[in-house]
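Minutes, methods subgroup
Present: GH (chair), OT, SY

1. OT presented the first of two proteins processed in the latest run. Sequence and structure tokens recorded below as shown on screen.
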Amino acid sequence: MDIVERNEKRIDLFGKSQSQILQTNYIDYLDELALEIGVKPDLISLFFKDPKLAVKLYFGPCNSYQYRLVGPGQWEGARNAILTQKQRILKPLKTRSLKPSSNNPASFLLKILGLLAIVLAFFFQLQWF
């Protein structure tokens, strides 16, 4: 019965096309494999032990480090890798330091005028229809 339900769910998501026969939801597939191997972290118990990590796992992006927290192939650096993932992604994008923007009244006035122009353009566009 499980196979029939999976096929129906896959058809609902990806269609009946021959090119989509092997497609599946990536995160569901990884979670199922992790559960079979015994490396899927238990978020409820993790919430009581390490709430910061549990929140990162639940609300953050899915990454392979979470499957290295428990079970075979456990890695001590997995927690730190999960908690510092955002900084490691953004670091290569910050190749130069920028000067802080000045609080010049003229720049503020230009921003307000630009916003006003956009609102007026949108308003007049709606009146034509």
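2. SY then presented the second protein from the same run.
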Amino acid sequence: MSLFNFGREQLQKGMLNQMLQQVGIDDVGSFVQDFRNEAAQASVAPHQGDDDYDEDATLQHASGQQANLFSMGSSMLNKFSGGGGHDGGDSNPLDMVQGAMKAYKMFSGDQSGSGGGGGNFLDNIGSTVQNAQKMYAVYKQFDKNGDGKITVEDIELYLQEMGLGFVSPYVAKGLFQAVDQNHNGTLDFTDLMALTAILNKLNGQFGGA
């Protein structure tokens, strides 16, 4: 059973839970909570020990990506340059992205080059913070009302935008519901990074198309 041909019948039979257990995730809720704790801790001082980190250059790069690749306008650029918003409150959104990225590296298993049909995004997401910034920019495209969250209806399209179209919609929606621990039908960016970390672990074991 691959992530590509996983269907309704497999979801109803609980096979997604079995697949998660095979990659070491016995409790998605605990996984997500640990992920969120690590992301929050990393975002407090995300650049300590990063000798090659240049905040001005990174912000400029992130802004350029959004303006040139995603055409998201000045309001989105303001978020990356510390203008505030729903995702980070008074914190710098870049710090939040960096924190989530560091948690991703720790929790994803970093199955780079696993060759399961995952495409460049799953292979490369652990390599640079710019990949997380791309993920955040696409995420904001699907945040239609600006509340810092996306819905289950968006998740399949989001994964397609990120080059993860090989993932069955039943896997995508099943993981969304599992990660949505408060059952309000929405995920914030850190939840989405946790979901992607789970997908990366599944991809290493079960592959895509």
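Chair's summary of item 2: Confidence is low (pLDDT under 50) at residues 51-90, 111-122.
Next meeting: continue with the remaining queue.
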